[in-house]
Amino acid sequence: MKKIGLIFSLLFFGLFAIAQNTDTAMLSDTSGESVDNSAAAALPADLSKVFSDNAIPYSTGNFGRIISSTPLRAGFTKSSALVKTIVSGDEVELLKFLPEENVWAVKSGKNYGFVPISSVMKLKKNVELEKYKHDVNPKLVKGITPKLPKSVRGLEIAHKVMLKVLVNKKGKVEEVKFLHGPKELKEQALKAAKKLRFTPAKYRGKDVPAWTKVPVNFAD
To answer: Which site from 22, 64, 97, 174 is most exposed, i.e. has the minimal number of CB atoms within 10 Å?
Structure first.
């Protein structure tokens, strides 16, 4: 009986060792180096560290549209290494917004990096992406500079409000959303935006409705 028990023990440990070797082989290529198929493997070491330190995911399913050609950089500042230039109208995957740096971590094609918040417009999942698809952005042709309300004169606030507007096929504003700026100027900015006029966005040569960002600056 002792011999049988010893045989079973040897068989068990032998199978365990084989399983371990098999797992190790699956994680290595023919050169014996570890193979990492994650998105992190494609990133330079410094950029991979930035993503790791800021808990930035490599995919979210959330998308945005570049509203003005912008550099995709490997860091937060203008001096950071240039990855590529993303042209106006391109779609990017939004990974994470970093409020202190005022940048979005994005994926553009196979490239990862950071773009300023002012250069990208967030889209509502894939529904908005398809509904307002365009390859030429709306262009402002008639702006407006409303006067600063008397109620806020003397206050130390910015005179600029950033809005998001839906421009229809005729170049008129159909819908307005407040993005950021002094809340004291919100209502006046929303009203002023309705008077803006654009050349409409286009998709494959046809006029289409589209969202775009627009600043409203108040005069003293």
So the answer is: 22
Who contacts 46 (Cβ-Cβ below 8 Å, separation ≥6)? 74, 75
Asked, for residue 202, whether it belongs to a domain, the answer is yes
| Residue 160 to residue 162: CA distance in whole angstroms | 7
* Residues 137 and 67: beta-carbon distance below 8 Å: yes
Q: Which residues contact 220 (CB under 8 A, 6 or more apart)?
A: 147, 148, 153, 159
E strands of 52-102, at which residues? 63-66, 70-73, 82-86, 91-98
CB 194 within 8 A of CB 215: no
Tens digit of each residue's pLDDT, the chain (220 residues): 544 544 445 444 444 444 444 333 333 333 333 333 345 556 778 888 889 899 999 888 788 889 889 999 999 888 999 999 999 888 899 999 999 899 999 999 889 999 999 999 888 655 555 577 888 999 999 988 888 888 877 777 888 899 999 999 999 999 999 988 888 899 999 999 999 999 999 998 999 999 999 999 998 7
Residue 196 tokens read as: 């803006």
Q: Which residues have a Cβ under 8 Å from the Cβ of 163 and sit 6 or more positions away? A: 176, 177, 178, 179, 189, 190, 193, 213, 214, 215, 216
- Number of domains the chain is built from: 2
Q: Are residues 95 and 154 in the same domain?
A: no
Whether residue 181 lies inside any domain: the answer is yes
